[in-house]
Amino acid sequence: MPRLPRLNLPDIPQHVVQRGNNRQVSFFIEQDYAVYLDKLKEYAKKYQADVHAYVLMTNHVHLLMTPHTEKGISQLMQSLGRYYVRYVNQTHRRTGTLWEGRYKSGLVDSENYLLLVSRYIELNPVRANMVQHPAEYPWSSYQGNALDKVIDLITPHSIYLSLGKDDEQRKAQYRELFKYHIPDLSLKEIRDATNKAWVLGNERFRQQIEIQTGRRAAPLPRGGDRKSQKYKEAKDNQ
Fold it and tell me: What is the 3-state secondary structure (H, E, C) of 154-167?
């Protein structure tokens, strides 16, 4: 089955994932993480994309960003990827591919899913049994979104800002969200939307995206009457 084109719309958040080739290590020493984040900040500014949440794992990266131009995130990821590969190869005297092909991404319904995806991203080290609490992991946005660390890279989304009337209240409300378990079904929704270039959102949001882009935003329903008008319309939008 041919790969679906990425959905890129200005001012709609995207969850971006990039993995190391064959799931191999992409960050070797602490300096590597710092270099990646520094260049992410530079290219986010250059290509007009706001970074709301991130985590740098040993062999992959998760980013939650809102572009303000149609090509903002693709330009950012291309420039960042090229720079970081050159840096790693020169620093660690290696050659060859570092990343596993194209990065993966999916649009996020900010009103209903943005904070969920932010939690999903910052809880990665906990799910990987690297730490017991996201505050213990230095290479994520949690310490900026929930604690007192100043991370210039982060631009708060309006949904995050709505959590409270001031910074202290917002951070406290954000920490409260981490007391609740993310259901397995929600984890699957997030992963499927990102890995398969679907839209993560409710039905109304998905329909809006389909109208704007002219392509389907979710998988076709399984089974049912394959001769029905609804099936034919969905098939035509593949």
Answer: ECCCHHHHCCCCCH
pLDDT tens column, 78-120? 999 999 999 999 999 998 889 998 899 999 999 999 999 999 9
**Residue 216's CB: how many other CB atoms inside 10 A?**
19
Domain edges within the chain: 14-201
The edge-to-edge listing of strands for the beta sheet with 60-67 is 49-56, 60-67, 14-19, 104-108, 199-200
Please give the C-alpha separations between residue 77 and each of 62, 80, 105, in angstroms, as whole numbers: 12, 5, 11
Helix, strand, or coil (residue 193):
helix
Q: Does domain 14-201 fall into CATH 3.40.50.720?
A: no
The model's pLDDT over 165-218, given as tens digits with 9 standing for 90+, comes to: 999 999 999 999 999 999 999 999 999 999 998 999 999 999 999 998 888 888
Nearest-angstrom CA–CA distance, 152 and 190: 26
